[in-house]
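During the no-cost extension, the postdoctoral fellow (Dr. R.K.) reprocessed legacy sequence entries with the updated structure-token encoder. One reprocessed record is reproduced below for audit purposes.
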Amino acid sequence: MGLPIADDGNGHNFFCALRLVVDSQATDHQKLFPQSARTKCVKPLISEKHVFEEGIAKWNELFIFEVPRKGLAKLEIEVTNLAAKAGKGEVVGASYISIGQGTNMLKKVASVRMLHASSDVQNIVSYPLRKRGQLSTDEGVQDYGCLLASTTYFERKTIANFQRDIESGKKIFRDMGFFVAFGPEGPWESFRSFLPLSIVPKKMKESFIAMEVTMKNGKKHAIFRGFAIVINDSDAKFDMCLCPLSMVHSHTFLTSEAGHQTVAEEEVFENQRYQPISGWGNKWPGFRGNDPAHWSTGDFSYSSKEFFEPSLPPGWQWKSTWAIDKSQFVDSDGWAYGPDYQSLKWPLTTKLSIRSPNDFARRRRWVRMKQRLNTESSNRPNNEITVLSPGSSTILPWRCMEKDSDLCLQVRPYVEFPETPYSWGHTVFMNSGYASGNDQSISDPVLKLNQIEKKDMLLNCNPNTGNKQSFWLSIGTDASVLHTELNTPVYDWKISINAPLKLENRLPCPAEFTIWERTKEGSNVDRQHGIISSRGNAHIYSANLQKPIYLTLFLQGGWSLEKQDPILILDQLSLGHVSSFWMYQQQSNRKLRVNIERDMGGTNTAPNTIRFFVPYWISNDWSLSLAYRMVEVEPLENPTNSNERKIFGPRKNVQVLDDIGNSSQTPIMLSPQDYVGRGNVLSFPSRGEGYPSRRVGISVATRHSEHYSPGISLLELENKERVDVKAFTSNGSYYKLSAVLNMTSERTKVIHFQPQCVFINRVGISISLRQCDVQSEDWFHFTDPPKPFQWRSINKVELLKLRLDGYKWSAPFSIASEGIMCVSLKNDIGCDQMDIRVEVRSGTKSSRYEVVFCHASFSSPYRIENRSIYLPIRFRQVDGLSDSWRSLSHNSAASFSWEDLGRKRLLEVLVDGTDPLKSEKYNIDEIFDHQPIHATGGPVRALRVTVVKEEKTNVVKISDWMPDNEPRSDKSLAKLSRNNSQKQQPTSADSEFHVILELPELGLSIIDHTPEEILYLSVQNLLISHSSGLGSGISRFKIRMHGIQADNQLPLTPMPVLFRPQRLGEQLDYILKLSVTTQTSRSLDLCNYPYIGFHVPENSAFFVNIHEPIIWRIHEMIQQINPSRLRGTQTTAVSVDPIVQIGVLNISEIRFKVSMTMSPTQRPRGVLGFWSSLMTALGNTENMPVRVNQRFHEEICMRQSALVSTAIANVNKDLLNQPLQLLSGVDILGNASSALGHMSKGVAALSMDKKFIQNRQKQVVGHHDHDLDARFRDRSLE
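Re-encoded structure tokens follow.
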């Protein structure tokens, strides 16, 4: 497209908007709604011609519109410069292309696929661009550029023609999406453009392959693969290969790779240094000159600023892309940390995944696999070795699962060259489950892929040298069943490689372990040892699970096994392994029971997981050291009158069960179920569970203090999840803490002790706080981190006073509740005053509350406005000191904040100069109009207080009482006096408010999660109106529409119109009308509707045309919807089932004509079960009448829940009372043979189903047993 370019300082970014407009007099029965599209934005190529500059914008985009066969249509094109007018955009010009009979003759192509062939589509025409409203005949037509477009058309086959062409064998161009073949020679298989997110089997070359459709970055990805995938679920690397069965036992194949390495690894290291200001990087000004560059080799012999790739030696090829190595002691991103680069050399020997304050360097390793090429392996392409990294997977060739295939799967551990590799694993498994102890090896110890079945097996890889241990693996094979279009099952196999045993440390400290294997002679053999980090795991490969497995465990902090002997953790034959064991800490003389949880799978060859955990941890989330005691707490029903009860709380400690003493920052482990039997501690429901006794509690104190707090019952803490407690020091002062209970796993609960409240100074100068009636004070500097306050005395009230240098102490205030208050400070030498804003808010994870001190700003949650003509007022928070009154002259305003959050939040107001005892109190958090109180002689007070909401501020408007605006009659005064006794509500004249929205046409597209448009709803002449203030609290809501239609947007559907009205007789101005009238009430449990009406014309009906696939697409979309995103925040308000009063309910009769077409090939498998065949035969209907009867009721009054259930029951009754009418739309006689045929196929399929036969046999045996029992009972009665 050529465009004139104006150099006006703006940019140039053009796009085209296209719209197909069909003549309203078109003869097509189905209305075609306007179709539109737009191109992307492109920047033009600017060239100078004569004096002016001309730009050429190229889009090269293809658009397809549906054009009627008869009638006229035109394609409107509008070009817009989006960058013009400082980004607001400007229309450059517009043009149109006439389409239809007798206008512009389009070139015809055979199929939509031919549109991409440039040689066949060279029908380019130039169209001039003009401004809107400008005709070509106008004089002085200005040139706004021209548009170059190529227009062609192709015919869409109808369903009838499409079937006729298929039956006749005629070659057609089916526009179904795309074609796939195994090679250029074909045969080509077609795939529809509609691709659901699933795995579908497709038949190609008499074999099935899997087409897996996934969604990535908003685009669908279709992956064609075989029906077998191998996944490495362990933490080790493995070699995997496929080889023919004849070569498994071949000495040449097993040893050919031993002399030379066929797969190797190349590595490149990434280096970064930490700068306190700039962070991690390698281009900062402080980067040291002797440091390596961004990329280097492992020994720093070569480094470069840019990434470099080692060259491949002759005879090698790359087998993978560059990836980060995460298999060693590194963090989740592969980084290892150290003080300098010299300490970061691979292979790492210690875990360096956590950065310490002294670590300023980090490295990570990038690896890429390469493979040796040789003539021997090229002659046997199936035995190529693939390296599986931890967590990776590979897809097996699709022909390896065929019946005539003899390929076998071989697995062994991966080792670095020049180490001698392991032998390929051979299978060892036991046929019986847990109960059997007889080992039976397979006669053919390989995994033949065409004979694969669901099972678990053990693989043993023997070392080729004598200094290594055997390597054991657990191989699991499982399959999901997929169904073809003919309902033939196809299995999608997943082969997982796991460690046979995995240890999981669910303790708060690292653990050192040793795995022992018990021989037949009774001696223990050391198989594997290592360290498991907290919440980490260790995979065990060196132990033979067919033998008893023992464990030795040491925990950080001096914990060791109590009896020092290895404990039996796994015995597949006798199942005599322990469920818990005791550990002992010599330093504190404490004992701890550690529980064991096992996941053992379905067979004794399945991978086993063993977890170590304790029911409770204690975590100190504060820098101050704490000491703990496990105590027996006093029951609530026991009375007491001691002084300790007054000091420490309502419950005291009966006895000390365990003295934990001073603790470090490491969490402390507890097993409270072991305190059962000590004193009066009640028994647990089960000793194996962590459910606590109500008498077991935890007491806390600061370090070196003997004054412990009252015990917190663990059961009470579980119920409340947060309990406040005081931690006393040795001098009697205390800190207020919060004990929070969280779940760190399914079995372990963590008790976090954190400050209840921390203080943050944002004033800019140091502030001092002290407890009321106490002389000692604490200073909080503006440079200090958030820290708690130390309360000095338990016998004093918990109120605070605030002071700054040069100012006096403030009035006492409380921080016991959330909110914002303003604390006033007076100067020592003058009358100057400073206001400090104090905000108490919910804290972060480290505390329950935060108290933030900052300068008072002009914005506050309240504003007081004195609108009196001549009266000055005074105001304050209720129950304040005598000097806390604030004066406010007439016609002025002032901001207001609470002085103390601990007092009542009421505003006290009086006229300046009057008695303070006659002041009035108002709740300014409630939007209300407080009118003067009347008596016989007139009003008691002369002020009117109104509270309104303006954005986030509550505005208190204080005005004079104007008697001219009030009724003068005694009758009205008496009425007002009576209303005052019932908490007078604001009375003001109702003002009418009307909102009317009219839309000539409204379109709404429904797009599902794939994403694809499935429905299009169109409404014509929509009117929505809402009126309020109609008197007596009445509001009215109306909806009216002239037309409505819903279209099925699924491709190639035989019923494109899902819902539309049918009119008979005269045309009315509406097809659907809803009117609801509401009336406000003062009760929360009453909803009043004077009138509810829903009307459709008497001479109309609604066509409902359902094609079965749209049902399943809508059902799938509903399943994917997350309703929680539409809900607001959770509320603590109690739900109320209100009473609904309806004056008049008028619903007209609604008629439907339902047509339905079944499509069993597009039905999800197993949804309808046995009834699927019957629904296919009897489900096709045409114009089946369905009617909802008319409803007219007066004076309805019932609960909302009962009203909804009654309405649903009435609709169901209307539908079920028409069984003959429902069946009249079903062609039963025409479908009888088809129904019987489908039912016979279903019964035949069930007769061949193994699960159905087994269940049927169980039922038969059950019936026989029932008959025998009945006979015995009859005999006993005789």
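The first strand starts at residue 2 and ends at 5. Residues 75 and 97 are 5 Å apart (CA to CA). The remaining legacy entries will be reprocessed before the final report is submitted.
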